[in-house]
Write a structure and sequence with these properties.
Chain A contains 5 helices and 2 strands; from the N terminus they run ββααααα. Chain A has about 100 residues and is mainly alpha-helical. Chain A has one domain. A two-stranded antiparallel ribbon of chain A has the order 1-2. Chain A is globular and about 35 Å long. Chain B folds into 2 domains: about 90 residues, Hypothetical Protein Ychn, Chain: A, CATH 3.40.1260.10; about 45 residues, no CATH class. Chain B is about 35% helix and about 15% strand. Chain B contains 6 helices and 5 strands, in the order βαβαααβαβαβ. Chain B has a 5-stranded parallel beta sheet. Chain B is globular and about 50 Å long. The chains are: A mainly alpha (about 100), B alpha/beta (about 170).
């Protein structure tokens, strides 16, 4: 298993850079992963990250549709906040595994 | 899994020519999946596929119960063709298909198109099929960006790393 150092802390990641142990995540770490993705995080980003983490830790599947029903943001804003592949990018920054959902 | 390669897909152009639930959903899942990966996405509906973007029809799609040799009853037995001709059977099977998809968090057609267009995916209708079925642009749902001739479709489809997919 690979390790990476973010904000002075060693964390376990898989070969794509996704956390294998979400409890190692902190907000400081999120800011550094986001920098790697050329993003600077705002409160709006963190609201989404918190939603993704609570949903993942609650054992629920993550899909683009669940973002739309989250009450935190709509999908259009989600695509703007995390441009490119938003669900992959956001889960990486949120320190949780890459979603396995097709939708 | 190493998914790096030298020729990544940068753009997909998906054509849907049929209007059954499974045809339209194969198209929408592939289209939405591409948008989610950051791939530029065009979806082109033609012939019976137009049902997916006609306002009055898009949320009432059916799956064929006669002549559908892969259709099975709960438990795995093949659906006998004679059962398929019972009035209401097609509606019932179609309702069941939609219910099973809902359980997997697969949205209804209109909501699926909301997700695709919110992510920048584009949806088009085929001009020739529109003329043939006597549809007008105002019959189409608000997700449709335009009505294209086949020449215009090819013009939209061009580019490095672009793929045309016929579902």
């Amino acid at each position: 298993m690979a390790q990476k150092t973010y904000a002075g802390v060693k964390v376990d990641v898989n070969d794509e850079g996704y956390f294998t142990n979400p409890s190692q995540w902190t907000k400081e770490i999120a800011l550094e992963i986001a920098k790697e993705e050329n993003l600077s995080l705002t409160g709006q980003h963190f609201a989404i990250i918190e939603f993704l983490r609570s949903r993942y830790l609650g054992g629920e599947a993550l899909s683009i549709r669940s973002i739309n029903h989250s009450g935190v943001t709509d999908v259009k804003t989600f695509y703007q906040l995390f441009p490119g592949a938003p669900l992959k990018k956001a889960t990486k920054i949120a320190g949780i595994p890459k979603p396995v959902s097709c939708i | 899994m190493n998914t790096e390669n030298n020729y990544p897909i940068k753009k997909v152009n998906i054509i849907c020519a049929k209007g059954a639930i499974e045809d339209v959903y194969a198209t929408l899942v592939m289209g939405n999946g591409a948008v989610m990966e950051g791939i530029e996405t065009n979806i082109f509906f033609t012939f019976f596929g137009l049902d997916a973007i006609v306002k009055t029809r898009m949320n009432k799609l059916h799956t064929a119960v006669v002549g559908n040799s892969a259709l099975r009853l709960p438990g795995g037995l093949r659906m006998p063709t004679l059962l398929g001709i019972i009035p209401g059977m097609e509606s019932f099977i179609s309702w069941m298909m939609m219910r099973e998809m809902e359980k997997l968090d697969i949205p209804p057609v209109g909501e699926f198109m909301d997700l695709i267009t919110a992510g920048g995916g584009k949806i088009y209708a085929c001009k020739l099929a529109m003329d043939m079925f006597k549809f007008k642009p105002e019959d189409l749902c608000e997700h449709v960006s335009g009505v294209l001739t086949i020449g215009e479709f090819y013009a939209h489809a061009g580019g490095e790393g672009s793929q045309i997919i016929f579902t």
